[in-house]
Specification:
The complex is a heterodimer of chains A (about 260) and B (about 290). Chain A has one domain. In chain A, about 80% of the residues lie in helices and about 0% in strands. Chain A has 11 helices and no strands. Chain B is about 35% helix and about 25% strand. Chain B contains 11 helices and 13 strands. In chain B, α5 packs parallel to α6. Chain B is elongated and about 65 Å long. The chains are: A mainly alpha (about 260), B alpha/beta (about 290). The interface between A and B is medium-sized, with 18 and 22 residues.
Chain lengths: ~260, ~290
């Protein structure tokens, strides 16, 4: 069954990963254009003039022209991070809803317990998402280094950690929706709504944590020099709760 | 008669299923299936057959008690080969891939048996299942179930969409399971099919079992009586299992052998040995009569 689940998602995942690798190649190749621009825009003198502060009191604005920052900002922040929620939705939405819509769920459930079916499906989907996220994150510094732009991995790996945790949270949430509806279109619409609505909920102070975008884009990670630990722990606690709720829901849901 | 010394492989007691608090699909169904029997649930569309099977499989919430091989269904799921009403398999797979999937999913699946059956029924091995007709999907799904070495075969309308020849071959295959000591519970709305292969039949309508009977006993235990309208008072005097008002006369089913002679002596009344077809019609249509 692992193989079947893997094969079911393979096309969607492969197409997404292939497109993103294409984008990554473009972004890596654009670095020589970006570097002097950043060096000019954010030079110590320019910034000192702009802010009216002596240059020696300023942070080192040279970071903006470094490969590591470039990957964090242009790739992990502005490209991959933005697309991860959509990617997770693409993988998660048919996992249960398609089986229910196409009535193939009876075939699975006649041989396996619901708990087994849930966790195999859950595990396969998550492994594919996690594998893709890791691959797409690590390819960036690899390509940069191959292209001759020295780029350390350390902060990029931390940003990847945040993206993995965020993807886990979103995946658990979208799976709940996929179990709820036996209609793939509804799952897509509901998942899309979640992606759009969650940031808006952050206008309510108590729900501000629901805006997952700053975390997934790695905002503030460079300044902190590390992961947002509080948020990481919070999401790492909510995600398994959602997963267990999903398992319970699937185990008790009527299969009509 | 039912042998009460043999432990049933399936026991359903007072099964009630209400969908969304509004639609009562099953109204207290009870039956037992003994080993090495073909037990049929016969009923019209929407009678409650599929709901009964899905409840047995544990996919619906219900009230009542269901024991399969003496346990809850979850404990013995791997011993049940199930064919649902919707014969949906993975359309993007061809049969060979489906066979490989079955090998991984069902420990009792016998690949050689499936391949042999697929050849016998001329099922193409390398055509995507999504391009199969309803009848072909029915065959494939049923053959997959029959290729398993299960204890119980639960088949929901296995003859759906099949022509008479193929259906007959499939019914023979199902019947062969009895020689291996297996038990078959299956549903159908095709009376001839049930008459051909079932040992026991429960006639189900509007979520109730109207009658459970050994198929072979129908001819011996029951008689159909044609009663003219002017003899209508007899319907109250004599005891009938069910009566159905036709355009020219009443049709009644009686299991009271002691009354048969007396009824036949009445003017204008005739009787015949019922087959399952007429038996089913009178029993089901008689439900709406008020005598």
């Amino acid at each position: 069954m692992w193989c079947k689940e893997f094969r079911d998602a393979l096309w969607r995942v492969s197409i997404f990963v292939a497109i993103l690798i294409g984008l990554l190649i473009v972004i890596v190749n654009a670095f020589p254009l970006f570097e002097p621009l950043m060096r000019g825009l954010y030079s110590q003198d320019t910034m000192a003039d702009l802010l009216g502060i002596p240059p020696e009191q300023l942070l080192d604005f040279g970071i903006f022209a470094r490969g590591e920052f470039y990957v964090l900002d242009q790739w992990q922040g502005k490209t991959l991070g933005q697309l991860i929620p959509i990617f997770v939705l693409l993988v998660a939405f048919p996992i249960f809803s398609r089986e229910q819509e196409k009535r193939t769920i009876y075939f699975l459930l006649s041989g396996w317990s619901r708990t087994s079916v849930y966790w195999v499906k859950y595990g396969t989907g998550f492994l594919m998402i996690a594998g893709s996220v890791v691959l797409l994150n690590l390819l960036a510094p690899l390509f940069m280094n191959i292209a001759g732009y020295p780029t350390p991995y350390s902060l990029i790996i931390l940003a990847m950690g945040q993206q993995l945790i965020a993807a886990w949270f979103l995946y658990s949430l979208f799976l709940l929706v996929s179990i709820r509806f036996s209609d793939q279109v509804r799952v897509m619409v509901a998942g899309g709504m979640l992606i759009i609505v969650l940031p808006f909920l952050s206008f309510v102070p108590a729900l501000s944590w629901l805006n997952i975008y700053p975390y997934i884009l790695g905002v503030g990670l460079y300044d902190r020099g590390g992961m947002d630990l509080g948020y990481s722990i919070g999401l790492s606690m909510v995600a398994p709760v959602c997963s267990l709720v999903g398992a319970r829901y699937f185990a008790t849901k009527e299969v009509e | 008669m039912e042998n009460h010394e043999v432990e049933p492989v399936l026991r359903v007691q007072n099964l009630v299923k209400v969908y969304r608090k509004t639609h009562t699909a099953l109204r207290g169904i009870s039956f037992s299936v003994r080993p090495s029997q073909v037990y049929a649930l016969l009923g019209r569309n929407g009678a409650g057959k599929t709901t009964t099977l899905k409840s047995i499989m544990g996919w619906l919430r219900y009230s009542g008690e269901i024991r399969v091989l003496g346990s809850s269904v979850d404990a013995v799921r791997q011993k049940i080969a199930y064919v649902p009403e919707e014969k949906s398999l993975y359309g993007q797979h061809h049969l060979l891939q489906t066979i490989h999937l079955c090998q991984r999913m069902f420990p009792d699946f016998r690949k050689e048996a499936m391949v042999e059956l697929a050849h016998r029924f001329e099922i193409p091995m390398k055509r995507k299942l999504g391009s199969f007709s309803l009848g072909m999907r029915s065959i494939v799904y049923t053959l997959i179930a029959l290729s398993r070495d299960a204890e119980i075969y639960m088949l929901d309308e296995p003859g759906l969409g099949l022509d008479a020849i193929i259906r007959e071959s499939l019914m023979e295959l199902i019947r062969e399971k009895l020689y291996e000591g297996k038990t078959v519970l299956y549903t159908s709305h095709i009376i001839q099919e049930v008459e051909r292969i079932a040992d026991w039949v429960s006639i189900i309508d509007h979520g109730k079992i109207l009658l459970s009977v050994l198929v072979d006993d129908i001819k011996e235990q029951y008689r159909t009586f044609f009663i003219p309208f002017d003899q209508e008072p007899l319907l109250r005097t004599f005891s009938f299992r069910s009566v159905w008002k036709k355009s020219t006369h009443w049709l009644g089913i009686s299991d009271r052998k002691d009354q048969w002679e007396s009824l036949r002596d009445r003017p204008g009344i005739s009787s015949e040995v019922p087959d399952l077809d007429s038996f089913f019609r009178i029993l089901v249509r008689g439900q709406s009569n008020v005598v």
